[in-house]
Amino acid sequence: MTVSDPVVESVVATISRSATEIRQGLIGRRGTVDEENPSGETQAEADVWADELLGDRLAAIDGVGQYASEERAEIVDCGDDPSSTDAYAVAVDPLDGSSNLKSNNAMGTIFGVYDAALPARGDTLVAAGFVLYGPITTMVIATDELITEYELSGGERTVVDRDVTLPAEPVVYGFGGRVPDWPDDFRAYAREIESELKLRYGGALIGDVNQVLTYGGTFGYPGLESRPEGKLRLQFEGNPIGYVVERAGGRSSNGSQSLLTVEPDDLHDRTPVHVGNEELIDRLEDALA
Ligand code: F6P
Ligand code: MN
């Protein structure tokens, strides 16, 4: 099953072909380098390596005008300006949850294809998705036309779910940040959810969001007392994940509005991220109002 837009298909094909290689390349790259990413997080060897690999390949695609990543400060200009031509901008979190490398837990690669120059609103996305490096490698690709889950093997992608839809009955939740750092209104909401759903938190956004897509429920990384803007990045994490979950029939929110309608100021802006079944995100917004 391919995507009808040839540029988007090239982007997703490049990422899916690279995923097997990235997975294999993690071996021997579990240490850290003496550098921080633009968000001030210590970089793993694998973060830097995966960013260079994806950056080189995605920037070379005809019709990709910009490449940006969580792991580099500046946007790479690689052709036409996405705001004035039919080119797209590709934003990537090359290795989401890379702190899980040390403990050998799940990680992912997140991508968003924006029909606008970065930083851009999420409602300019034409496609978004992720690779999940779990016991097997899977990929979810969402466009205007489809939201499909694939298994990846040897560079091939095989459909496992043609139309990913959030289950109507929510089962799992996962909330990031230390509980004493949660604002009171979020803590009160979390207490209610804890009594209704089952905790599943793995520490990689992609792993945790894929549980929500599979079982129904909600994932949240809220604004914190110590950092009201939260932890996750709007361009590389919030928007692509918001797009995927909304396409699967759920909702996304920064606490008060869909992530896809948030105006970005800076490429590396952080935002509170909440995604999941509509009823749960509506309740969250009521609790924070
Ligand atoms: O990319 C940031 C990230 O690793 C996400 O994948 C994950 O959801 C979050 O940070 C985990 O943060 P914490 O270690 O605070 O639970
Ligand atoms: Mn990440």
Describe this protein's structure.
Strand 3 (64-69) and strand 4 (76-77) form a beta hairpin. The strands form three sheets. An eight-stranded mixed sheet has the order 4-3-5-6-7-8-9-10, sandwiched between helices. It has a five-stranded mixed sheet with strand order 12-11-13-15-14, sandwiched between helices. It has a two-stranded antiparallel ribbon with strand order 1-2. The chain has two domains: 6-161, Fructose-1,6-Bisphosphatase, Chain A, domain 1 (2-Layer Sandwich), CATH 3.30.540; 172-288, D-Maltodextrin-Binding Protein, domain 2 (3-Layer(aba) Sandwich). It is built from seven helices and 15 strands. The protein has helices at 6-25, 45-59, 100-103, 184-196, 205-215, 234-247, 278-288; strands at 32-36, 42-44, 64-69, 76-77, 88-96, 107-114, 125-133, 137-143, 147-153, 156-161, 172-175, 198-199, 217-221, 251-253, 273-276. With 289 residues, it is α+β, with helices and mostly antiparallel strands. The structure holds 6-O-phosphono-beta-D-fructofuranose and manganese (II) ion. Residues 96-97, 99, 176, 203-205, 221, 231 line the site of 6-O-phosphono-beta-D-fructofuranose. It is an enzyme of class 3 (hydrolase). Residues 25-152 form the Fructose-1-6-bisphosphatase class I N-terminal domain.
